[in-house]
Amino acid sequence: MIRILFFVLLVLCLALGFAWLADRPGELSLIWQGQLIEMSLMRAASILISLFAAVLIVVWLLRTIWLSPHTVTRYFRARKRDRGYQALSTGLIAAGAGDANLARKMAARTRNLISSDQEPLIHLLEAQTALIEGKYDDARKKFEAMADDPETRELGLRGLYLEAKRLGANEAARQYAERASEKAPHLPWATLATLDHRSQARHWDEAIRLLDQSRAAHVLERKEADRKKAVLLTARAMERLDADPKSARDDAQAALKLDDRLVPAALVAAKALFREDNLRKGASILERMWKSDPHPDIARLYVRARGGDSTLDRLKRAKKLESLRSNNAVALATVAEAALDARELALARSKAEAAARLEPRESIFLLLADIEEADTGDEGRIRHWMAQALKSPRDPAWTADGVTSPVWLPVSPVSGRLDAFEWKAPPSQIAAATEDGHLNPDQAIRSLPPVATVLRPAEEPASERTVEAAPPAEREQTERERAEGERAEKERVEPEKAITVPDRKEPAASPAKDKDAEEAPDPFFGRPPDDPGVREPAAAERTTANFRLF
Questions:
Q1: H or E element at residue 268
Q2: Beta bridge partners of 499
Q3: What does the angle CA 364 – CA 298 – CA 306 come to, to the nearest 5 degrees?
């Protein structure tokens, strides 16, 4: 463009010059070697300009002839280079597509057409070709050569890092990642890999320092960086909790400022405050987190915040949680567990059944089985709840990479990835479909078998026992109403519905069997025998345990 403008400007100047001479005519006389040459001024200027143009043309022609060998050589070199770049492009595409034959062919053609010193991508093409052909040693040598070249250092280190990860050489992968992060701190993969390795080694201070450097270099987005730093602070707080509760509290509260929905940080902060006898502030942190995310771990820690509380005090705290998040399955289950410990069985049953209707889970039906055992001790009803638990979905748990953990962990034990654990339902086998395709909690509650009632009339001979099953009905009432209903139920028994079972003599047991029977503990479901939630069966029930009809 500049050349065109210069040419137009030159032509314009010549035109203005000729116009100026035309307006001012004159004669030019020249005596040269005794001869007189006379001509007009316009003609003389035209001849002069023509001679200057002819000289320029002659110079250009001579220069072109002189430089023609170099021009021809450069033309063929450029043509060869263009063919090499075309082969290089085709080879990279073939390597990305997995075509090993074409990639190898294009790599050989590229090396013949282009020098590897001029184009480092030839090393990349050869390394990728070796990888898809399974020649990992050759690929590793190519990546090492690229790592020694300042122009391709980052590319070679990344290739070596991926190869070390593939072989399971974690220490070598860590060294390659740290080397890349030192040479090029702006690389996200190097920063994240180094961060994961330092987290696996539980070097929390170094990991936090590296994360701060990456945030300053804008390697990670602000939201992602805040989340990872909150996880690292929580991990360091968990490690310091036993030895230094104050530092653990500060780290956990700093983590909550970065991510106010991180449940483990709230749990660690509350535990640290409880150990400092600051019950009110710790409870306020748990209540605030409970309002946004009703988590079972929060409910468990909140109810048992003070070790000296009675079961009734724990029940009050569970009811407070329910008031903060009403109509929630976790809150209802928490109240049911506290009521079971406090021996308020009617309240425990009603809350557990309400939780089962909202969210039928395995733990809720197991809780109903515990309540049934403490309330009636009826084995048929207990087995009913246990069967419902087997058919119900599994409870959410801390899950990462297909494995579950009873507590939250900052790093996955499988992949070593930071912040891998999530609160979700763990993977399970596909369960058999029910009649309607899914579990119906209302149907499970309505199909609960009745409590077996044992009667022993005074006029009945000793060789007979009468057993009658009460009519099925839903039993959602208080403990006092249950006792009165049981007394009224005995009075409503119809004699014609009684089933008489003749007494039969049991064969004498061997002494070895008697000894095993004495040593075997009584069966229980979900609670140890010395727990107050387990009630010993009555003497009449133990006597007729083998003759119950469900």
A1: helix 263-275
A2: 467
A3: 105
Residue with tokens 């790592």: 147
- List CB contacts of 116: < 8 A, sequence separation 6 or more: 122, 123
CA dihedral 360, 366, 368, 374 (to 10 degrees): -170
Q: Which residue, among 244, 254, 283, has the nearest Cα to 267 in the 3D structure?
A: 283
pTM: 0.65
Q: How far apart are the first and last CA of the chain?
A: 101
Task: Tell me the pLDDT tens digit for each residue of 186-245.
Answer: 888 888 888 988 998 899 999 999 898 888 878 888 899 999 999 999 999 999 999 999
Burial call 211-231: b when 16+ CB within 10 Å, e when fewer = beebbeeebbeeeebbbbbbb
Hey, is 260 helix, strand or coil?
Answer: coil
Both structure tokens of 194: 């180094």
CA dihedral 262, 264, 267, 272 (to 10 degrees): -110
pLDDT in tens, 314-327: 999 999 999 998 88
Q: How far apart are CA 185 and CA 40, in angstroms?
A: 77
Tokens (6 digits) for 144: 């090492």
Report yes or no: 382 and 404 within 8 Å, Cβ to Cβ. no
Residues of the chain with pLDDT under 50: 431-437, 454-478, 491-550
Strand order in the sheet with 452-455: 452-455, 464-469, 499-502
Cβ of 425: how many Cβ atoms within 10 Å?
13
Structure tokens at 108: 């050989």
- What integer best gives the mean pLDDT of the chain? 79
CB within 8 A of 31, min separation 6: which ones? Answer: 37
Distance CA 218, CA 202 (A): 24
d(CA 436, CA 423): 29
